[in-house]
Amino acid sequence: MTNALRAIFPSPDHDHERCASAAIAHAEAQCAARAQRLTPMRRQVLQALLSSHKPLGAYEIIDRLAQKTRPAPITIYRALDFLRENGLVHRIESRNAYVACVHNHGGDDLVVFLICESCGAVGEAPGGAAAEALKASSRAAGFSPRSPLIEIAGICSHCRKR
Amino acid sequence: MTNALRAIFPSPDHDHERCASAAIAHAEAQCAARAQRLTPMRRQVLQALLSSHKPLGAYEIIDRLAQKTRPAPITIYRALDFLRENGLVHRIESRNAYVACVHNHGGDDLVVFLICESCGAVGEAPGGAAAEALKASSRAAGFSPRSPLIEIAGICSHCRKR
DNA sequence: CGCTTCTTGCTGCGGCGCAACATTAAAATC
DNA sequence: GATTTTAATGTTGCGCCGCAGCAAGAAGCG
Fold first, then answer.
1. CA atoms of B104 and B47, how far apart (whole Å)
2. Which member of A9, A130, A153 has the closest CB to residue B146?
3. Which stretches does DSSP call E strand in A11-161?
4. CA-based max dimension of chain B
């Protein structure tokens, strides 16, 4: 798990071009497989989120798409809903913001978000053992868990070095 | 941990009167110990939250306090800030709402929230092993965690029985 | 082509959260 | 006790968040 976490947090000098285009390619494949339509609007929203690993609020997304016509908030939310339903985007609850998923995990897989308070980047790690343990223990307590939400704020290694 | 989770989720037929007054007493003790002032406003906000184990939004709190004068939102937020800083109230990020703390844990202790989607009640359990494991593994990944946020939505045992 | 379905646009609204400043109340100091 | 200092509350205002309800346009299908 340690390695998974390390591997997953975006390094400031990774090949982000490649990273983003891989995510787009995955989105296309995912939608094709599910017979879902990755429309221009949805693609634009996803690309806006893929421009960095920092979560964006809906209104920030609007600003970035505001080339000719400025889309209404509801338009963005609908695109985000679609992308989330298809596991392409996550909502960061503690930020009221959204990040593109670069992890290619199953739709209902548990994910741990590492949120750097310095650079704002968000890393996404498989929940793995810890999440399963949480589910198991809450189940043992008579609670029927849907899926745990785990967000960890802190300082990433790259920011700490500086 | 299993027992802790079970013990902590509020049963619909627990002695809530006692539960709430104990929390108030603890708040007074806590504030006295820290030389902090539990003003009428702050006490009222805490009591509003203690009226149930369901998280309340800031504007719901306003409605409940609206006896004579309707406090402004900022007033509530300031009271909530104070109560949170003193570990008397938690914010449920996934709900944009707040619950009174009935767990008497240390200020920076890790807490797991069990949120029943049926009755809306929130149980609070010591994060214990799972939270420590999360911190440890994120630290091993070079990440310096502040404190993990763990919220688990699902159905509580009392609602499931019905 | 006409129909159905999906997607997007438009209008409007309410909750959330706080900044900046003014006012009042409580502590501290003399 | 009067004054100064500090803390708490009130007032005004604003921007983001998230969606309901309805209308219009685009894509798929027989």
1. 16
2. A153
3. 89-92, 97-100, 111-116, 122-126, 144-155
4. 54
The closest alpha carbon to B83, from B122, B54, B46, belongs to B46
Asked if residue B85 keeps its beta carbon closer than 7 A to nucleic acid strand D, the reply is no
Name the residue among A5, A155, A156 with its Cβ closest to that of B137: A5
Per-residue pLDDT, averaged over B60-78, amounts to: 91
**pTM for this entry:** 0.91
- Give the pLDDT band (50/70/90) at residue B2: very low
Residue B7 pLDDT class (50, 70, 90 cuts): low
Question: In A, which residues are within 8 Å of B125 by CB distance?
Answer: 138, 141
Q: Give the CATH class of B2-161.
A: mainly alpha
Domain boundaries, chain A: 2-161
The conformation of residue A56, written as its DSSP 8-state character, comes to B
Band of pLDDT at residue B133, cut at 50, 70 and 90? confident
What is the distance in angstroms measured between the alpha-carbon CA of B38 and the sugar C1' of C27? 15
What value does the mean pLDDT take over residues B34-55?
95
Helices and strands in chain B, H and E counts: 7, 5
Report residue A150: phi and psi, to 5°. Answer: -130, 115
